Amino acid sequence: MPKQFSWVDHRLVGDRHIDKCSAAAAALYLFLVTVSDAKGLSYYADRSICSRLSMDPATLAAARANLIEADL
């Protein structure tokens, strides 16, 4: 375990991955790492994610594309 433990890996900031993300993408990333299972899978439907994050479907799609582009 690293000296500075946190629930979200420090590499997100240290390796500057967060710099490549919009605020919506960062919110989606945090949501997905929080609800994923041991294999990294989330079973939340887009409609549920939109509701939880107060996003419309277009914003969710753009956030997801941003995460893919950022290799997250």
Write up this protein.
By secondary structure, the protein is mainly alpha-helical. The protein has helices spanning 11-14, 23-35, 46-53, 57-69. Helix 2 crosses helix 4.
Based on CA atoms alone, the radius of gyration comes out at 13 Å
Low-confidence stretches: none
Estimate percent helicity: 40-55%
> Mean pLDDT, nearest integer?
89
Shape estimate:
globular
The count of helical stretches stands at 4
Largest sheet: none
What are the secondary-structure elements, in order, as H or E? HHHH
* Count of distinct strands: 0
Proportion in β-strands: under 5%
Distance between the termini: 21 Å
Label the structural class: mainly alpha
Please describe the structure with a list of short key phrases separated by commas or semicolons.
single chain, 72 residues, mainly alpha, globular
Topology:
Elements: H1 11-14, H2 23-35, H3 46-53, H4 57-69
In short:
With 72 residues, this protein is an all-alpha fold. It has four helices and no strands.
